[in-house]
Amino acid sequence: MPVVPGLRSPYAKVGRLVYFGRMLDKIRLQAGQNLPADYQANLGKGFDARCCTFLRVSHAELTARVLAGGLDDAQLLGWGHERGGARTDEDCEVWNGFMMKRGWRDAGAEVLTKRIRESALEAAPIQTMFDYLDFDEGRDPVASQAWAQP
After folding, report:
1. What's 17-80 look like in SS3?
2. Number of structural domains, the chain?
3. Is residue 18 one of the residues assigned to a domain?
4. Environment class of residue 51 by beta-carbon count within 10 Å: exposed (0-12), middle (13-18) or buried (19+)?
5. DSSP result, 82-103
6. How many whole angstroms separate alpha carbon 129 and alpha carbon 134?
7. Cβ(26)–Cβ(35) under 8 Å?
8. pLDDT (tens digit, 9 = 90+) per residue, 82-91?
9. 5, 14, 48, 71: which could form a disulfide with 21 (CB 3.0–4.6 Å)?
10. How many CA atoms does the CB half-sphere of 44 hold within 13 Å?
């Protein structure tokens, strides 16, 4: 995959959640016709769908709210909590742990191995889908210890 300006790492947090900001970036990039074709088929699916399910909002509702403007990322997360119900610190810790480790010794491992091979990234120290996304987009999450960032 290409480097996509304006698409942040899945490890980057908005409030207490990883991945949410990346999903917002994808929505905005799509609206501006700047989301590469390789990403469009999964818009609202995969990790996007998991994140929306966690927040108990539909991707269509979130997209409409993002595109309506007027809210920054933290406020959009607050909107999600208002709409779907607030999450506890423990809920967020479980979410972050699951998402950051997806592909490591779980049902996603086979897909991760396939993607690494397809992208010729076998030499990279990839252990999770988040690692894969970062390396595939030209970031090195291992060197920056992306998972440890606040």
Report:
1. EECHHHHHHHHHHHHCCCCCHHHHCCCCCHHHHHHHHHHCCCHHHHHHHHHHCCCCHHHHHHHH
2. 1
3. yes
4. buried
5. HHH----HHHHHHHHHHHHHTT
6. 9
7. yes
8. 999 999 999 9
9. 14
10. 11
For residue 27, what are the domain limits? 13-148
Q: Which two tokens stand for residue 91?
A: 């809920």
Asked whether residue 3 is assigned to any structural domain, the reply reads no
67 part of a folded domain: yes
Task: Identify whether the C-beta of residue 5 lies closer than 8 Å to the C-beta of residue 86.
Answer: no
Q: Are strands 13-14 and 17-18 parallel, antiparallel or unpaired?
A: antiparallel
The predicted-structure confidence for 1-49, as pLDDT tens digits, reads as follows: 678 999 999 999 999 999 999 999 999 999 999 999 989 989 999 999 9
- Residue 2 located in a structural domain: no
**Which CA distances in Å does 54 have to 41, 58, 80, 98, 142?**
21, 10, 10, 12, 27
Exposed/middle/buried for residue 89 (C-beta within 10 Å: 0-12, 13-18, 19+): exposed
Q: What is the pTM of this model?
A: 0.93
- Give the separation between CA 21 and CA 15, rounded to whole angstroms: 9
Write the CB contacts of 122 (distance below 8 Å, at least 6 apart in sequence).
116
